[in-house]
Amino acid sequence: MLRIKQISLVGFKNYAGATFRFDKRIVGICGNNGVGKTNLLDALYYLCFTRSYFTRSDQSNVLRRAAGFRIEGHFDNAGQPTTVVCILRENGKKEFIADGQAYEKFSRHIGRFPCVIIAPDDIQIITGGSEERRRFLDALLSQLDPVYLQNLIDYNKVLQQRNSFLKSLTDRRLTDNQLLEVYDEQLVATGTAIFDYRRRFLQDLLPLAARFYTDIAGAEEPLALGYDSQLLNTPFRQLLRQGLEKDLYLQRTGSGIHKDDIDIRYAEEPFKTRASQGQRKSLLFALKLAEYETLKQAKGWAPILLLDDVFEKLDRNRMRNLLDKVCVQDEGQLFITDTHPERIRREMDEIGMEFQLITLPLDEENSDL
Are residues 332 and 304 in contact, defined by beta-carbon separation less than 8 angstroms? Predict the structure, then answer.
């Protein structure tokens, strides 16, 4: 069983210095808005993914007037203790260290301590553009297969290079076929591998998500989930050839797996325009639970689950179904934030689960909790 036993924060977001020890499988984190509940969850996420869930810039997570930040976490996985440290130094250099050994490539840490997070803005996975659903899918697949993650890194790097090359062309005229062909061959190699993996993987993930949706909603509904990719009908190399003239005109690459999407329909209409708020939230939680279950089956243990402000997002019945799944049926470690401690107490008492409650902000006497 995977557990985070302790985390220490220095100069991270609103924490000048604090240590938290976790002695129960279920940890409630309570306090008013703005006291650091989400920041603590984000620090836990950092330890699993080497980066923030909420911001792209590490520098934006430094406490005001601090030179940098340091996050240290102590994990236990089936009796194997591991200390993980993330440091952002004053010069902006980031270091990531496990048991005293620094990673040369941070990507090698991804998937070692699997983690699933559900946060308020995640509803964009349902209502937003295709990039939101690809980000969700890539975060899951990157924890499962380091080859997939490396292909994704390589693909995005070459895509950026090809787009820069297209932007550099004078009068949008192609003068160097050889360089473009090199970019295309590299895109085809990594992109086709990513496409094949996504297609196979979604054949299992999407039916699982549909099943969880039914469980959370408590009724059968006309929901349909599918994989949408340009490569389903046309080989990637042919797509690039066919789209070259348009790519030259727009100065960007219009074909490829960076356009993939998860097609979501309700009664054969687009889900995000037809579904109610409750249905959208149910589908979000269903996708996240499918991610959780997939990681659990692949790793052999349940991932760490971070739930940020979920009590405000689901009605009582849907919330009860979710808590029954993650608290009662599974043995994974759960961190859940809420503004109302009595609500966590009530829900945990009603399902008969022991829990630890941390109340923020910490005073100086309790900064080492």
Answer: yes
The two beta strands, 101-102 and 26-30, are unpaired
| Total residues found in the chain within this entry | 369
73 is written with which tokens? 């976490």
Q: What share of the chain is helix, strand, coil (3-state, %, to 5)?
A: 50, 20, 25
Which domains does the chain show, CATH number per domain?
Answer: 1-114+303-369 (3.40.50.300), 129-297 (1.20.1050.90)
What are the b/e assignments for 61-77, b being 16+ CB within 10 Å? bbbeebebbbbbbbbee
Q: How confident is the model over 67-86, as pLDDT tens digits?
A: 999 999 999 998 999 999 99
CB neighbour list of residue 328: distance below 8 Å, 6 or more residues apart: 351, 352, 353
- Phi and psi dihedrals of 24, rounded to 5? -130, 155
Which residues, 6 or more positions from 64, have their beta carbon under 8 angstroms from its beta carbon? none
Look at residue 121 and give its three-state secondary structure.
helix
- Tens-digit pLDDT profile for residues 293-338: 999 999 999 999 999 998 876 777 777 777 888 888 888 999 999 9
Euclidean distance between CA atoms 152 and 165, whole angstroms:
20
Per DSSP, helices labelled H in 169-235 are 177-217
Q: In this structure, are residues 27 and 335 in contact, taking their beta carbons and an 8 Å threshold?
A: yes
Angle between helices 177-217 and 130-144 (to 10 degrees): 90
Tokens of 34: 């703005």
Cis peptide before 361 (omega within 30 of 0): yes
- Identify whether the C-beta of residue 85 lies closer than 8 Å to the C-beta of residue 78: no
The span from the CA of 83 to the CA of 52, in Å, is 19
Arithmetic mean of pLDDT, 261-266: 97
